[in-house]
Amino acid sequence: MKKAIKWLDDYLEVSLGVVLMSLMTLIIFIQVIARYVLRSSLSWSEELARYLFIWIIYLGISYGCKLMKHIKIDACMSLFPKRTRPYVELAGILIFLAFAVYVAVTGFDLTMKQIPLNRKSPAMGLPMQYVYAAPAAGMALSAIRLVQAVIGQVKKIRTGVS
């Protein structure tokens, strides 16, 4: 069980991202071949590629949170004394965490509102709640990664490591 949790912690976003990106690339490739070689277009391929891309983006946000590689304004950090910089970093993570939780909760509510409407995508007839679930799922994963970052930052502050 611990191995499975460790594997999910290490590779969840990457493995899902690779699968979704490969699937999206394959679908687009098939569409190009169908359109220009077979002179027949697939009606559903562009729609599915778009929806896969949305999921890839939100998984990428979570992966960026895991690596702490999101855009930061480093010039602002130099304005603070070295002793207070870890606290400013912690404050930034906490603000991002609050935003991620807000988007996840709002996205979940929006997803739940799609179910009784029974809306379907135009070309594939895919229930739209699967598309609307991407922000909720991605930002919920991001929130988990940001909680991990908060714990790591608090440990750094306690041990005095910068």
Automatic annotation (TrEMBL):
Domain Tripartite ATP-independent periplasmic transporters DctQ component: 24-155
Source taxon at top rank: Bacteria
GO molecular function, one term: transmembrane transporter activity
InterPro entries cross-referenced by the UniProt entry: DctQ (IPR055348), TRAP_DctQ (IPR007387)
Entry keyword Transport: yes
UniProt keyword Ligase present: no
Main location: membrane
GO biological process: C4-dicarboxylate transport
GO terms under cellular component: plasma membrane
Pfam families: DctQ
Compartments, as annotated in UniProt: Cell inner membrane
Keywords on record: Cell inner membrane, Cell membrane, Membrane, Transmembrane, Transmembrane helix, Transport
TM helices/strands, residue ranges: 12-36, 48-65, 86-108, 128-147
Topology with respect to the bilayer: Multi-pass membrane protein
PANTHER family recorded: 2,3-DIKETO-L-GULONATE TRAP TRANSPORTER SMALL PERMEASE PROTEIN YIAM (PTHR35011)
Family, similarity comment: Belongs to the TRAP transporter small permease family.
Protein name, UniProt field: TRAP transporter small permease
Organism lineage: Bacteria, Bacillati, Bacillota, Clostridia, Lachnospirales
